[in-house]
Design a protein that fits this description.
single chain; 405 residues; mainly alpha
Length: 405
């Protein structure tokens, strides 16, 4: 005989009335457990783990910038650290791969939406322009008279290219680092060119066709870069020109389109198990060798970062790696990474380690303590300025992005 479904409410109404206080908690735990088993990334959603990846990228780049100031002959620790800090400059490649992945994912997700082009361009402008143009104004016109310094004379003489996001083109044309403390803006020019062109490319291709196109671009760029690298007079073009640095962006785009087509964790695990060790060894060799290998290093690091990123985005939220990437300090660095990137080179130019050592001759440039303290102090200053920039300058513009979604 089947039990009467109404028996419990009729017999024990008080017991039933008290159960809702327990059941939602159980369902909450079940829902949370299910969410923890889901992959960290899904279209159209914010992925904090990728903020953690961005935090790693800015940590690499920032330490590279500051440790470059160390005198390797002063102490063996400084020499060892400076040798391996060269790996840090490859954080820029990680930024490119991550940008290619995120931007392509956004474009594929919003492709059917009205205002596809306008919304994307305006939202990018609200994110990028306020800090970029403010930094230019401060460095070119505010700081020189206040500090009575001429360190910004070089970029001021070539400022047209900075205001128009063509500094990397001018660098490639002249084959010189010709913007001094603003030399690092070449990478922002590369990304801006990508933002202008890529929406139209994504709009014209299906996600599968986009994978084929992006892989073709990676191959063509690698070959073209190797040919150009044979000529020393175009050496800087290999490192800064958008055409020759877009392969990392393309690799990120391949991963985004593959995720849209159902790339599984099992596939990524099977491939990365054999590919990652080879890439790690190859990248380590080229860094220690100090050779550009006809631009092959750019390709190798692009492949390494996209392989690692594929592992990140296909893992569950409960995975140990995912939990580490959600560490508060990494999320903090990821949130303020743009400001830190913009600020760090002007700061290290205004406060070089050699000048600080000359102000404290009793310590001497050979002081290990001074060198480490220098990195810590500049890292803190960069973080503080980036924090202030985000809250006071960038955030009001970011709040406007909701009108273009």
């Amino acid at each position: 005989m089947h039990p009467n479904p109404l028996a419990i409410p009729l017999i024990a109404p008080d017991a039933v009335a008290s159960q809702p206080a327990v059941r939602p908690r159980s369902s909450e735990f079940s829902l949370e457990a299910c969410e923890q088993d889901l992959p960290v990334w899904k279209p159209g959603s914010h992925c904090p783990e990728l903020d953690g990846v961005r935090g790693i990228a800015i940590l690499l780049v920032t330490l590279y910038r500051f440790i470059k100031e160390w005198d390797p002959s002063a102490h063996w620790v400084l020499g060892f650290s400076k040798t391996y800090c060269e790996f840090g400059q490859r954080g820029v490649d990680l930024f490119f791969v991550l940008s290619g992945f995120l931007i392509t994912g956004i474009l594929l997700h919003t492709k059917p939406s009205p205002g596809y082009f306008k919304n994307f361009i305006v939202r990018r402008a609200l994110r990028i322009f306020p800090l970029y143009f403010s930094a230019l104004a401060v460095c070119l016109f505010v700081l020189p008279p206040i500090l009575a310094t001429n360190v910004f004379d070089l970029p001021r003489n070539n400022q047209l290219f900075l205001w128009t996001y063509t500094s990397n083109v001018y660098m490639a044309w002249t084959n010189t680092w010709c913007f001094g403390p603003l030399d690092h803006f070449w990478s922002l020019a590369v990304e801006e060119h990508f933002y202008l062109i890529w929406p139209a490319v994504v709009f014209c291709f299906s996600s599968k066709a986009l994978i084929r196109f992006s892989l073709l671009m990676v191959f063509v760029v690698g070959i073209a870069r190797a040919i150009v690298a044979l000529s020393p007079e175009y050496g800087l073009a290999v490192d800064t020109l958008s055409l020759f640095r877009c392969d990392a962006l393309m690799l990120g785009a391949v991963l985004a389109a593959a995720m849209r087509n159902g790339l599984s964790s099992d596939t990524v695990t099977a491939v990365s198990k054999h590919l990652l060790p080879v890439l790690v060894v190859a990248c380590s060799v080229v860094v220690l060798a100090g050779s550009r290998w006809l631009g092959l290093t750019h390709t190798l690091f692009g492949l390494l970062w996209v392989a690692l990123l594929a592992v990140v985005v296909t893992r569950s939220r409960s995975h140990r790696m995912s939990r580490h990437l959600r560490s508060p300090w990494l999320l903090w660095l990821g949130k303020y990474s743009y400001g830190m990137y913009v600020i760090q080179l002007p700061l290290v130019t205004l406060l070089p380690l050699s000048w600080i050592a000359s102000q404290m001759p009793w310590l001497g440039i050979a002081s290990l303590f001074l060198s480490i303290a220098y990195v810590v102090a500049l890292f803190a200053a960069t973080s503080g300025l980036a924090f202030a920039s985000y809250d006071l300058l960038e955030k009001p513009f970011l709040n406007m992005k909701r009108f273009f979604s």
